[in-house]
Amino acid sequence: MNKTRFEAFSDGVLAIIITIMILEIKVPHGEEFSDLKPLIPKFLSYVLSFIYVGIYWNNHHYLVHGVSKVNGKILWANLHLLFWLSLIPVATGWMGEHNFAKASMTLYGIVLLFSSIAYFILQRIIIVNEGDGSVLAKAIGTDFKGKLSTFLYLVGIVCSFYNEWISGGCYFVVALLWLIPDKRIEKALSK
């Protein structure tokens, strides 16, 4: 398969995910600013999830630049990632609808955790395909941020049973870690 087609398909799915998330925020029936107040939890959950999908889109873009050829394993690993990312709107909607309730924060963390695992699998399959001496393998190195993110998702999931705000804080910290695109790959590919 052509690398461009692979990337375009992924971009399209991610665009649809963002579109589905915004459709969960309904226009209020009233005409006063106070009528917007019930939308605050939905809007905040949308913003966090928008950032997450944007982070995955951005890092996926750089990851795909390190690919010289696409094979079936890469396609299936990418579909696995897109599957977990496609669950973000459901988790986001539930979280926003129920004011960040504990169970919704648990589900959100599980979706984020499995999305990060799926991204790691895709990354590893690409590295195996390209070779351990590839520019991409060298750029990713030990992937400290990826491992730290997985750990924080696990902490967030456990905390969600006790305190949803600590859980949300863990998810927010991971988003902050990745908000600036991963420059390792960009730098390595520009050399």
UniProtKB/TrEMBL annotation:
The domain of life for this entry's organism is Bacteria
Q: What Pfam families does the entry give?
A: TMEM175 (PF06736)
Any one GO molecular-function label of the UniProt entry: proton channel activity
Q: Which chain regions cross the lipid bilayer? A: 6-27, 39-57, 77-95, 107-127, 151-180
Annotated Gene Ontology cellular components are:
membrane
User: Where located?
Assistant: Membrane
**Protein name in UniProt:** DUF1211 domain-containing protein
Stated membrane topology is: Multi-pass membrane protein
UniProt keyword list: Ion channel, Ion transport, Membrane, Potassium, Potassium channel, Potassium transport, Transmembrane, Transmembrane helix, Transport
* Record has RNA-binding as a keyword: no
Q: Which family does it belong to?
A: Belongs to the TMEM175 family.
